[in-house]
Amino acid sequence: MLLTIILFPLLGAALSLLLPWYQVRSWILPICGGFHLLLAGLIVNGALETGPWIGLDALAKLVLLVTSLLFFGCSIYAVGYLSLCRDRGNKVIVPCLLVFLSAMTLAISSRHLGLLWMAVEATTITSAPLIYYNRNRLSLEATWKYLLLCSVGIGLAMLGMLFIAYAALVGEGTPISLQFDSLLVGATSLSRPWLHAGFIFLLVGFGTKMGLAPLHSWKPDAYGEAPGLVGALLAGGLTSVAFLAILRAVQLMTAAGDGAMARQALLGMGLLSMALAAIFMVRQPDLKRLLAYSSVEHMGILAIGVGIGGLATFGAMLHLINNALTKGCLFLSVGNIHRAYASKRLSEVHGAIATLPISGSLFLAGFLAITGSPPFGLFMSEFTILRGIFGTGQVWVGLLMLLLLAAVFIGMGGTALPATQGAPVKLESVFKDSFLLVISPLGFLLVVLCLGVYLPESLQQTLRAAAALLEVKP
Amino acid sequence: MTNLLLLTVILINFFSLGSARLVACIRAVAMQGALLALLPVVVHGLSGHSVMLGLGAFCFKGVFIPWLLLRAIREVRIRREMEPYIGFVATLILGALTTAGAFIFSDFLPLAAEHHGGLFVPTALATMFSGFLLLITRRKALTQVLGYLILENGIFIFAVLLSEAMPLTVEAGILLDLLVGIFVMGIVINQISREFSTINTERLTALKE
Questions:
Q1: How far is B121 from chain A (nearest CA, A)?
Q2: Which of A74, A82, A213, A444 could pair with A273 as two cysteines, CB 3.0-4.6 Å apart?
Q3: Contact at 8 Å (CB) between A254 and A472?
Q4: pTM (whole model) above 0.90
Q5: Exposure of A85 by Cβ count < 10 A (0-12 exposed, 13-18 middle, 19+ buried)?
Q6: CB contact, 8 Å: B164 with chain A?
Q7: Is A165 an interface residue toward B (CB < 8 Å)?
Q8: Is the ipTM of this complex over 0.90?
Q9: Which of B49, B105, B132, B166 has the highest number of chain A CBs within 10 A, making it the mutation to test binding with A?
Q10: CB of B75 within 8 Å of any CB in chain A?
Q11: What is the DSSP string of B122-180?
């Protein structure tokens, strides 16, 4: 079952290369996406599958479900989007998206650090052509930076993995293996200095991929130049996968009894990410770059949640879902606005609600959701994280986070409000909101809204189980 | 034998740091990759695992990737690395300093008993530092790719110490990822040269705050 869900997108990719019809090729995306979501639902509700190479625990289930839902929404949007961009073709983007989906699924379900590394690197390679979809100078620059920075980052993660294997070699008493379960079992006998070095390198490596400050420098460029649909998949899906990889390292450190050190490192990077993002969001003239900094901010919140532990970890798990889906809504609606105005800069974009009623409203609602306004799900998850922080007595961290959240709200509002409010603009393009282009962002927003009002019991259980995996003491 | 191999690897690091000719640099990195491919066999003896790993590394690092890069520069017709951010002599001195630092540093590392005093760990560190230096100090996209390759070579040296931890399939997958990564980078280099009619990355500065 698990193998099927990893392999069949590859089949879809091969099929899309063979078929000569443009529209049919586009439609392969939602078909594969839907099938993926169906399988993911079955797998998540089924029994836990574990094997030496691939398997799913509660954490992986959570990320798998989010990624699959996000991809399905984006694939519906893609049909509408690609029919507008006939001049740019879909012979590259469709197979790349499908291979990207397969690589993400493999990364989520791998139980071997080497396999995890391989899959994450494969996501970097397959997403590079996606960022370069627009084929202009700016997207080329963004692609080059993304490819080089992420490849070097992932190289460092590889070194981190080797250090952990070396910790087993020096520590003796554990078989030298990168199989995750056997590492967890023998974690206490790993040699400490090498384990710590390994953790730091894994954090830096996968942190680059996730976009934690100060390793986020590729993010505004890549998200800014990529099509909205790709931005949504990167900001919602890929960052969650990279976060999962970091959480594996945290799990290992916790099992070895050094969880406190790992948490402190995450807390520090999380606060730095929030602070840097808040600074760069103020007076940000570019809508997509604004969203990229918002992504940096929310990666920071995730890291803080896990860094605090306890209730905050539960909040962070919930926040992962909320952030991914809201980013999906925001990037897709900004994609529509960008297309209609032929610009994503504040100097040209204003009055979006009057001009594009649905996309403009979705963007405004998405902005309210992402900044944590009630009744959206992000309010609940951020509130839970804050409760966790104050509950553990770290009042200063809590106050700092509140302050930064307020700064982000003001900074982001300074760009998002003028872009959406105001008189309608006479557009030169004939772009209009169409069903395929607005249904997915609307769906994402509704899910986030539902999560803010009501958390189903089964989801709560999964979240609790996922958080518990990070708390295990030896 | 092992020490001779590793010393040659360090010499190649210096050569690629000091050379301005791109073709020579690519050949040097190819040579480094081919030498490193011998390492698993020399260290772990003739076994199915080490031979397969060595063969795979030789094909990818020694033959196929350099061939891809040589083809890329033939198409863009660029031969020399002009005006690096830091001069060649200065990078050589920096390279010498970091290599010396790597040797001193690895004496302090809590290594396993059988690796104490060996050349393995210092060479791995020195090679990684050289790769980083090349990445940071050069303007040409192609030299940056070479820096990335040297960085990966350094990691490979460390990986040979632990090759029992990595089943063959994983290693094969990692090598394949590296290959495809370089392939995509090669395509991007071509696009850069077509768009900007140069492969200098300093032109890639339109995106900033």
A1: 12
A2: A213
A3: yes
A4: yes
A5: middle
A6: yes
A7: yes
A8: yes
A9: B166
A10: no
A11: HHHHHHHHHHHHHHHH--BHHHHHHHHHHHHHHHHHHHHHTTTTS-HHHHHHHHHHHHH
Decide if A72 contacts A229 (C-beta within 8 A).
Answer: no
Short-list B67, B66, B68, B80, CA closest to B198: B80
What is the predicted pLDDT for the residue at A474? 37
The CA distances from residue A53 to A115, A180, A322, in Å, are: 8, 9, 29
Q: Are B24 and B58 in contact (CB under 8 A)?
A: no
- Tell me which residue in B161, B166, B201 faces A114 most closely, judged by beta carbons: B166
A137 touches chain B (CB under 8 A): yes
Indicate the SS3 state at residue A282: coil
Contacts across the A-B interface (CB distance below 8 Å):
113
Q: Splitting chain A (474 residues) into consecutive groups of 10 residues, what average pLDDT does each group show?
A: 92 93 93 96 82 89 96 96 89 95 96 93 93 90 92 92 90 79 89 94 96 92 94 95 96 92 95 95 92 96 94 95 96 94 89 91 96 92 95 93 96 93 81 89 96 92 91 57
Amino acid at the residue A351: G
Coil vs helix vs strand at A283: coil
Contacts of B110 in chain A (CB under 8 A): 170, 191, 193-194
Query: What's the per-residue H, E or C state across A83-105?
Result: HHCHHHCCCCHHHHHHHHHHHHH
Considering only the beta carbons, identify the residue of A138, A140, A166 that sits closest to B192.
A140
* pLDDT above 60: residue B50: yes
Q: Which residues in chain A have Cβ-Cβ distances shorter than 8 Å to B139?
A: none
| Cβ contact, residue pair B207, A221, below 8 Å | yes
From the list B181, B201, B209, which residue is nearest A144 (CB)? B201
Say if residue B81's pLDDT is above 80: no
Neighbours of A51 (CB within 10 A): 13
In this structure, what DSSP letter does residue A462 have? Answer: H
